[in-house]
Amino acid sequence: MSGFPTAMRRPRILVIEDDALVSTELEAALDDFGFDAMCVATGHQGLQQALDGAFDAIVLDRMLPDVDGLSILSTLRNVGRNTPVLILSALAAVDDRVRGLRAGGDDYVTKPFDALEMTARLNALLRRRSMSMNETGLVVGDLELDPLLRTVRRAGRPIELKPREYVLLEYLMLNAGQVVTRAMLFEAAWNYHFNAQTNVIDMHIGQLRRHISLNGTLPQMIHTVRNVGYTLHA
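That's the DNA-binding response regulator sequence above. Prediction below.
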C-alpha cells in the first residue's frame, strides 16, 4: 500500500505534534502504510531529533506550545537540512499556507486530515526527493518525463505541455498506480487551498489526457476514480 518495494527499508518519518490523539492516530496510519514513525510532542525535542537523526521526511505541526513550527523549519533550512517537511496545521487560510511554503515547507496539510491523503503526499515527497537526488526521470509504461530538461515523451514521441499540465502530470507520475484527489492535484499545481466548487482540475486533466494519448491514438493512461480523483497507470 505504501508504494515502496517490500525489500526496501521502511522510510523513517519524524512527527512533531503536541496533540497526543493526533500523534497516536498518525503514527498508527503511517505504520499501516509502510512507514517507520517517531513521534515527539515539543518543538525543542523535534528540532533536536531533526538535527541529530536521519529521517526521510518530517511531519511538522504548525502550532506547537513551546516553539513556532515555522521557526523550526527556518532553522533546519538555514543549517542546510533539506529533509522534506510536510506542515500539518489547523490554519487553513491561503496566507498561512503560502507562509509555510515560503518558509521552506514542501507540502501543507490542514487538520482534520485523511490518513490516505497524508500518506500519499508523503510518498510523493519521497519520490520527488529520490528523483532529484538520482537525477533520473519518471517512467510509467511508454510515458517518460525528464525533470531536468522538463520534457515529456510517449512512445518516443515528444509531447508539448503547458506549465501547469506538466506539474499535474509529474504529480500523477510520482503517484503512479495510486489514487490522488482533486485537492492534491490542485494544491500541487496552484499552491493554494482547493475550492471544491471549481472544475479547473477536470478541465486541465481533460486537456492532459488528450496530450498524452496523442489525441486518442494511444491508450488512455489517466483514469477517473469517481467522487475521489484520478489515477495514472500504463
